[in-house]
């Protein structure tokens, strides 16, 4: 056994000190490396900003599809609740969502009062649908005044002379008509009742237009889904839904007589024809209503769906992400919109919206949200 001489002890202490210094440097480097990795992970999370929206059922099919594609490309998600336009307006006013959606544009004074900014996101059509055996989609013709009379309970049978006069050669059953309408506050209802108010003085005077009205007749379903489901189950039923729901569920839609006196079928071309008459920049908040537009090929119950946001954004990152999502959709989601029978916004309108949002959206300090 080696003697523990002073020299040996001095060498051992020196070795131990060098070893301790080396281990300390290693641990410091290890901690810095771990911190760097964590920072990188945190940066990745910060870039993926999830947003929430609620409102109109009218655009739900396209918003959900856009959200799916956008999530795959950016990692940022959209949770959109299809609760009806009335619910969307309430949610954005109470600041429980990042944006609200409504098929009824708010008036300038309402936008100002609640500190909101509004812009259209997509254009589509509302269609009357029926459950009649032996009738093919688009085969039966309907006018706006006759549709109003049906919804007012004046016309109660499918073989009524007024319906038969329009539909020579169509086998009309001796069945009662069951009216189906929305039970919730709905932008689809606004478009439908706004159209009926334009074509029927009686409807305008006795019922009027709105997201919710005092219906003279009918059973109520919640959302486009609820109305579609009721019409499919009730023999002799008639309802109104966004066209994508009618097409997806293979429902029997009606041909409608438009302002030019032509009977037209619903599709993206007839919706686009109606939208071509819009003068977006002349209406505050781009609040154009596209029902009963002129033109031989215009679908008479066409409308835009609108996005509502607060001008002052409590969470600027969320506000910026909402704008980023719709900007992406406007520039990259046109084909998807067309596949679902919606009409994408024209490029000139997209540019006008971008300019308006850059000027309107601010943080609490008054700085622009969109850099």
Order of helices and strands: HEHEHEHEEHHEHHEHEHEEEHEHHH
Fraction of residues in helices? 40-55%
Largest sheet: 9 strands, mixed
End-to-end CA span: 77 Å
Unreliable residue stretches:
29-46
- Derived structural class: alpha/beta
Query: Over all CA atoms, what is the radius of gyration?
Result: 30 Å
Morphology: elongated
Number of helical elements: 14
Number of strands: 12
Task: Describe, in plain words, how this protein is organized in 3D.
The protein has 371 residues and is an alpha/beta fold. It has 14 helices and twelve strands. The strands form two sheets. Strands 1, 2, 3, 4, 6, 7, 8, 9 and 12 form a nine-stranded mixed β-sheet that branches. Strands 5-10-11 form a three-stranded mixed β-sheet. Helix 2 (60-74) links the parallel strand 1 and strand 2 (78-82). The longest helix has 42 residues, at 6-47. The protein is elongated, with a radius of gyration of 30 Å. The model is unreliable at 29-46 (pLDDT under 50).
Chart the SSEs and their pairings:
Blueprint: H1 6-47, E1 51-55, H2 60-74, E2 78-82, H3 85-93, E3 99-102, H4 108-114, E4 116-130, E5 141-142, H5 144-151, H6 161-166, E6 178-182, H7 187-199, H8 201-206, E7 219-221, H9 223-233, E8 237-242, H10 243-248, E9 252-253, E10 255-257, E11 263-264, H11 268-275, E12 302-310, H12 316-332, H13 334-339, H14 347-360
Parallel strand pairs: 1-2, 1-3, 5-10, 6-7, 6-8
Antiparallel strand pairs: 3-12, 4-8, 4-9, 4-12, 10-11
């Amino acid at each position: 056994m080696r003697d523990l001489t002073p020299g040996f002890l001095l060498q051992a202490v020196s070795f131990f000190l060098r070893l301790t210094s080396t281990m300390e440097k290693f641990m410091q480097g290890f901690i810095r490396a771990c911190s760097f990795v964590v920072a990188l992970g945190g940066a990745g999370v910060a870039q993926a900003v999830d947003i929430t929206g609620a409102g109109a059922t009218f655009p739900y099919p396209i918003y959900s599809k856009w959200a799916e594609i956008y999530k795959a490309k950016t990692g940022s998600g959209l949770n959109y609740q299809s609760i009806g336009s009335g619910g969307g307006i309430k949610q954005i006013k109470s600041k429980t969502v990042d944006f609200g959606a409504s098929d009824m544009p708010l008036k300038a004074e309402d936008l100002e009062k609640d500190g909101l900014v509004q812009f259209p996101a997509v254009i589509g059509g509302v269609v009357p649908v029926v459950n009649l055996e032996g009738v093919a989609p688009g085969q039966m013709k309907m006018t706006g005044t006759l549709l109003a009379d049906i919804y007012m309970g004046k016309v109660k049978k499918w073989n009524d002379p007024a319906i038969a006069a329009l539909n020579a050669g169509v086998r009309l059953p001796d069945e009662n008509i069951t009216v189906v309408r929305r039970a919730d506050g709905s932008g689809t209802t606004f478009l439908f009742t706004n159209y009926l108010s334009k074509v029927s003085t009686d409807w305008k005077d006795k019922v009027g237009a709105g997201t919710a009205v005092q219906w003279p007749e009918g059973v109520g379903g919640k959302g486009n889904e609820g109305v579609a489901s009721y019409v499919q189950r009730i023999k002799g039923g008639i309802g109104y839904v966004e066209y994508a729901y009618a097409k997806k569920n293979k429902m029997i839609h009606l041909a409608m007589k438009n302002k030019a006196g032509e009977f037209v079928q619903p599709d993206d071309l007839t919706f686009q024809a109606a939208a071509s008459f819009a003068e977006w920049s002349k209406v505050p908040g781009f609040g154009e209503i596209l029902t009963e537009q002129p033109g031989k090929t215009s679908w008479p119950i066409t409308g835009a769906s609108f996005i509502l946001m607060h001008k002052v954004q409590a969470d600027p990152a969320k506000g910026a992400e909402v704008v980023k999502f719709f900007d992406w959709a406007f520039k990259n989601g046109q084909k998807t919109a067309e596949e679902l029978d919606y009409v994408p916004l024209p490029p000139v309108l997209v540019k006008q919206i971008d300019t308006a949002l850059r000027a309107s959206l601010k943080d609490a300090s008054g700085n622009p949200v969109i850099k």
